[in-house]
Design brief:
The structure holds two protein chains of two kinds.
Chain A (H helix, E strand, L loop, with lengths): L2 H24 L1 H8 L8 H25 L2 H31 L4 H5 L8 H12 L5 H8 L5 H16 L3 H31 L7 H24 L1
Helix pairs in contact in A: 1-9, 2-9, 3-7, 3-8, 3-9, 4-10, 8-9
Chain B lengths: L18 H27 L15 E5 L2 E8 L8 E9 L8 E5 L9 E3 L1 E2 L4 E7 L9 E8 L3 E8 L3
Antiparallel strand pairs in B: 1-2, 2-3, 3-7, 4-5, 4-8, 6-7, 8-9
Chain lengths: 230, 162
């Protein structure tokens, strides 16, 4: 096994470890929220598309830190975007929580039997219909920018590897491949969370359903507070 | 095509409630993510090995190792996350057989491997650059484990500024 393969494997292993040790706790609510938008069957492809988007973002960030050889130079420029993405994710979770508890009419809008009356309802319905399975890839692209400690740590190592590779172009590809390996490593844990969230053996527990809605709202608010403090 | 099985709205909410198990999972993650920080604080209050034992913001910290001491300093001050930092390790009473290194991590939180490679920078001194990343949980306590080949590790637990 070449040294490149060893480093690639190290990044994959690191992603696998932090996937189960960190991502499940920190990103689990987002994965579950995304799972809510799927029917009970065929959840794998949308989730894979979402993770493909996330990994693409990691790879692009890896390429940038690899070619520049600087972690702080890159992250200092995207901190504002990351904050906005964090607030966007929080807003999405709150929106879903409010709809689930019935405090806003989005739930009815999303059902097939809903017959929109007003202009805005019809427009929202069309917009929602346009959000096909393919929407999970761009969602992953955007949410891949969420601020995350282990991703930062991997980017630090990718920047160092890029700098040590000697040439900028080689550094770019080094960073790209290493962050791809890291991202791939995080997939199994998050796929598992998404799969578990798709099981419906408690769907008839109305009280728990209501509680989960409230908890989603609370989590969304917590994420917004975190984003404000970030 | 509207109405086909492939149309899976990104925000389908009430029509397929997976909310039961979702609630349990969210509870679990909430406890893991939020209460985890409280547990960390309790551990520190009870004299846990991961408790802060180094005021790196005011100056270098020293630990005993084998027959001598290891002193760690991080500059510039204040020591902030997400900026380039210089790590300086000085030895007294012991000579490393090879270049030492520093592993950075958070007590009780998996953050991935973050190693600072140190190079000799004078008599009994080694220096290297690295970055302490920021955790979105808001926790600020970090641990630097200085490993000296053949002598073992010395741990420094300190708070950084966000």
């Amino acid at each position: 096994m070449s040294s490149t393969e060893v480093v690639f494997l190290a990044f994959f292993s690191s992603g696998f470890a932090v996937g189960f040790g960190h991502c499940v706790g920190m990103c689990g609510p987002i994965i579950i929220s995304l799972s809510l938008s799927l029917r009970e069957k065929k959840v794998l492809i949308p989730h894979l598309l979402y993770h493909a988007g996330r990994i693409t973002t990691y790879a692009l960030l890896g390429a940038v830190v690899g070619v520049t050889g600087s972690f702080t130079g890159v992250t200092s420029r995207i901190v504002g975007i990351q904050k906005a993405v964090m607030i966007f994710a929080a807003a999405l979770i709150i929106l879903m929580g409010l709809a689930m508890v019935g405090w806003i009419p989005l739930g009815r809008i999303f059902t097939d039997s809903f017959r929109p009356i007003g202009f805005f309802s019809r427009a929202f319905r069309k917009l929602n219909a346009a959000c096909s399975r393919g929407a999970y890839y761009p969602a992953g692209l955007v949410l891949g920018l969420l601020p995350c400690g282990p991703v930062y740590t991997a980017l630090v190592a990718a920047a160092r590897a890029g700098m040590e590779s000697g040439e900028p172009l080689q550094g770019m590809f080094t960073g790209l491949w290493l962050m791809t390996a890291f991202g791939l490593g995080t997939v199994p844990a998050l796929l598992l969370v998404g799969r578990i969230a798709s099981l419906g053996w408690l769907t008839k527990r109305e009280v728990i359903y209501r509680l989960s809605s409230m908890l989603m709202i609370a989590l969304g608010v917590y994420f917004i507070v975190r984003a404000a403090l970030f | 095509m509207p109405g086909s099985p492939n149309d899976r709205p990104l925000l389908r909410v009430v029509s397929k409630p997976h909310g039961g198990l979702t609630g349990l999972l969210l509870c679990l993650f909430f406890v893991m993510g939020v209460a985890g920080s409280s547990l960390s604080g309790d551990a520190q209050a009870q004299g846990d090995p991961s408790a802060v034992d180094c005021d790196i913001q005011t100056g270098p910290c020293t630990k005993n190792l084998a027959d001598g001491t290891v002193t760690l300093d991080i500059t510039p001050k204040p020591v902030r996350a997400m900026q380039d930092l210089t790590f300086t390790v000085t030895f007294s009473g012991l000579k490393p057989a090879a270049d030492p290194f520093i592993d950075l991590g958070m007590p009780g939180m998996t953050m991935g491997p973050n190693r600072v490679v140190l190079k000799r920078a004078g008599e009994n001194a080694y220096r290297g650059t690295g970055v302490i990343v920021r955790c979105t949980s808001g926790l600020r306590t970090w641990k630097a484990t200085v490993t000296v080949p053949d002598k073992g590790p010395a741990e420094f637990v300190f708070d950084v500024v966000y």
